[in-house]
Design goal:
Layout: H1 3-13, H2 17-29, H3 33-55, H4 64-75
Length: about 80
């Protein structure tokens, strides 16, 4: 990441949640459709890889209660 991009990111991270969300949406919408499609395909491949790990028993799953607790904890920081 360039210094200019890092500066912009640091400033963006200091925005309120709703402003960051609007900014993220605007940035995503500015990316050409073919790049969005590549991103979608990369996420699809990651999802399939992770599903395979779960099905093969290669990863240990967490309970919904633990995940929810961790998520709520992260939100109040």
């Amino acid at each position: 990441m360039t210094d200019a991009a890092r500066t912009i990111l640091d400033q963006a991270l200091s925005l309120a949640d709703d402003e960051r969300l609007r900014l993220a949406e605007a940035l995503f919408d500015s990316v050409p459709a073919d790049a969005q499609e590549r991103s979608d395909e990369a996420w699809r491949e990651e999802l399939l890889r992770r599903m395979g790990e779960v099905r093969r028993g290669e990863v240990e799953l967490e309970s919904w209660e633990d995940v929810r607790r961790a998520g709520r904890s992260a939100l109040v920081r």
